[in-house]
Amino acid sequence: MWTAKNFATNDVHSLDKLLIDGHGDQIHAVVPKEVIHQFVEQLHEGELIHVKKFNVSTNTVTYRLVAEGELKIYFSINTVVKKLENQDVPIPMHTFSFIDFSDFPTRCRKPKYLTGNY
């Protein structure tokens, strides 16, 4: 989880988080600055949560956190976040998206995949 800022002005744009489910599927979640105050106490690294009433949008950013991340979720004033009572559910804390080394050249200079341009 991190705060997205305009580094020139230090203005906060959003609170961002990478969510992972029990299958290891990932999605980029965005809490816009207008509602950060509503969720900042409920969102913590490594905790299992249930989220409902969020918005889904096409991911149009230049750099994607998730290689197959065509969608993002956005929290709104109506979003409900509840910490799960059972925190022992086997959900991975980390996931990785590996590609064959031979596929590197097809990703070079395509920033959406966060592959180095060396």
TrEMBL record:
Short name of one Pfam family: DUF223
UniProt-recorded name of the protein: Replication protein A 70 kDa DNA-binding subunit B/D first OB fold domain-containing protein
Domain of life: Eukaryota
Biological source species: Kingdonia uniflora
Domain Replication protein A 70 kDa DNA-binding subunit B/D first OB fold: 5-83
